[in-house]
Amino acid sequence: MRRSLFLRIVEAVEAHDRYFQPALDCIGRSAISSLLKCTSAICMLAYGNCADELDEYIRMGEATSLKCLRHFVCGVKESFGATYLRRPNSQDLHRLLGFGKARGFLGVLGSIDCMHSEWQNCPNAWRGHFTRGHGKPRVVLEAIAYADTWIWHANFGTPGSNNDLNVLDHSTLLDDIRDITAPPVSFTINGNHYRMGYYLADGIYSNWPLFKGARKDIERTFGILCCQFHILAYPTRFWDMQTLKDVMYACIILHNMIVEDQDHIILSPNYDPTDDYENAHVDDAPPAMGYQARIDCEATLRDKVMAKRLQRDLIEHVYQKFRGHDFNN
């Protein structure tokens, strides 16, 4: 994380939460500065340290470090969540279509998968709800990422007794599609026209036109996220679910801010932002919503014949696009 980004975060949480603003302690001395409080919180997120491990480095007690962390993650989520956890707008979807076109996947909207985080201090009364089989209690994160590892959809808090399909049923991912409020994506491939984008997923997801099996960018994104914030790689030691959610969403927001700040956008040499995306485009406005329209949309969403046809069209398109290409050069 660059210094300029760190100072931007400090200014935002200081303006949002009085806890980070300058104050005096009980004997009239200056209290701990906002820089130290934010440094303590980021150290705990980045290294997964216990709160008392920062005593010698920052001269801050365990209770104060934990309090700083809770205030910090809440401040980050409320200050930056609307920007860095937003759903893609038309401009974002155009960029996604550009990524997909350069890689041979017309109409792809990202990669979807789930990550299971162990909950070490899960209350005994909830262990059966959060445990699958004879394993340990876990909490599930469902996420969708771009090719540049930007995470635009995150749903955290589903009990670990659920598999990926059950998590999808509890997710809000498909609400915009079913309500016909999402910007419709249209693309043509091998002469067949499709009015719905799709996500790259593994084999557990249903055979719908919305999901296509492939090696996913989201797996790499999960690896980067856990390397950046070791608190996610270790068993979670917090007791309440709300703190778990705040920590997870704060880490995702910080990750997206780092991706934006360091400009880690993976673009193909053939990517042109002014291209027409090879007959793939985002319509200016979604169609009018009605009861019959929602029924038709749900039927299209679950159309297995269309899913098979799209899979065959993508295989043929990728083969024709990269046939004879030397990937070693």
At a glance:
The protein has 329 residues and is an alpha/beta fold. It has helices spanning 3-16, 34-47, 55-58, 62-84, 90-103, 127-130, 164-170, 175-178, 217-228, 241-261, 291-301, 304-322; strands spanning 108-118, 138-145, 151-159, 185-189, 192-194, 198-201, 211-213, 281-282.
Radius of gyration: 22 Å
- Uncertain stretches of 5 or more adjacent residues: 266-279
Distance between the termini: 33 Å
Mean pLDDT: 79
Order of helices and strands: HHHHHEHEEHHEEEEHHEHH
Count the E strands.
8
List keywords for this structure.
single chain; three-stranded antiparallel sheet; five-stranded mixed sheet; 45% helix; 329 residues; alpha/beta
Description of the structure:
The protein is α/β, with parallel strands linked by helices. It contains twelve helices and eight strands. It has a five-stranded mixed β-sheet, sandwiched between helices. A hairpin with a 5-residue loop joins strand 2 and strand 3 (151-159). Helix 1 crosses helix 4, helix 2 crosses helix 4 (62-84) and helix 4 packs across helix 10. The radius of gyration is 22 Å and the shape is elongated. It starts with a helix and ends in a 7-residue tail after the last helix. The model is unreliable at 266-279 (pLDDT under 50).
Show the helix and strand layout.
Layout: H1 3-16, H2 34-47, H3 55-58, H4 62-84, H5 90-103, E1 108-118, H6 127-130, E2 138-145, E3 151-159, H7 164-170, H8 175-178, E4 185-189, E5 192-194, E6 198-201, E7 211-213, H9 217-228, H10 241-261, E8 281-282, H11 291-301, H12 304-322
Parallel strand pairs: 1-6, 6-7
Antiparallel strand pairs: 1-2, 2-3, 4-5, 4-8
